[in-house]
Amino acid sequence: MTPGIQELMREVERIHDGFRRAVLAGDPEAAVALCTDAVTVTDLPLGIGAAGRDAVHGHLAQVAAHLPADLTFARLSRTVDRFRVVDEERVSFTHDRELPWLLPGVAATGRRAETLAISVTTVRQGRLLAVRTLWDHTTLLAGLGLPADAVHPAAVALGDGEGPRGWW
Prior knowledge:
The chain is of the alpha+beta class. The chain has a single domain, classed as Roll (Nuclear Transport Factor 2, Chain: A), CATH 3.10.450.50. It is 29% helix and 33% strand. A six-stranded mixed β-sheet has the order 2-1-6-5-4-3. The longest helix is centred in the first third of the chain and has 22 residues, at 3-24.
């Protein structure tokens, strides 16, 4: 691998990590500043998310307003290439509030939750193009004592008719 490719991969990681830090800090402006105009953010399997800078800004503001107080991430693995960062993480939190971006319509249970999430972040020309996060909803719902049908996929289409269902 050439030094140029190595530096490109480090830059892809910096963009991904900067976006993530901004989201978790409740700063959607800083997060969107790292994005292309055609950015998409989607949480699967529910298909909740947004497409385009303005819609993603609104979505991230909603996410930031509903983050659990004790949300933690433990990275299990990371794979990086010239265009992508793929993280596998163990996510832990107390379900102390509604999480419309993850468990829409589910009231807080007060229970401790732990689940796996795999995120794929795509970067093009130094800007974040897409983030898709696949949550292990089966484990999450079971851990919260909720039935498997407690949440349902969103009926959404993101940008030019391309929606999350086209990704699997």
